[in-house]
Write a structure and sequence with these properties.
65% of the residues lie in helices and 0% in strands. The protein is an all-alpha fold and 100 residues long. Helix 2 crosses helix 3. It is elongated, with a radius of gyration of 17 Å.
Length: 100
């Protein structure tokens, strides 16, 4: 579970390694990124680390593309982030006009 306390593997071989890497990248924790990247290299391969990094980057890019295209924020996410968006002034961005 990204940004949570997930301890499962998602039914994916080596899923715990991959979740640890994704969590480290999302949190921007350089030390944890290094540890989890090394673990992926040791248990899987250098190519698996490259693929893992590409998946993390792709998910980040998908969010940016959705934002740039004006795809609306889901109601649940809008409710959960209302205060944060207001505090950061995000609601003033042209792409956010009309978001609850």
């Amino acid at each position: 579970m990204i940004l949570g306390k997930g301890e499962q593997d998602g039914g994916v071989p080596h899923g715990r390694l991959l979740v640890a890497y994704a969590e480290a990248v999302i949190h921007g924790d350089a030390a944890a990124i290094g540890r989890s990247a090394q673990s992926i290299r040791e248990h899987l391969s250098d190519a698996a680390l490259v693929d893992s990094a590409a998946v993390v980057a792709t998910f980040n890019a998908i969010d940016r593309v959705a934002d740039a295209c004006g795809i609306p924020l889901e109601d649940e996410k809008a409710d959960l982030t209302a205060d944060l968006r207001a505090d950061l002034g995000i609601n003033d961005f042209p792409s956010q006009v009309g978001v609850a």
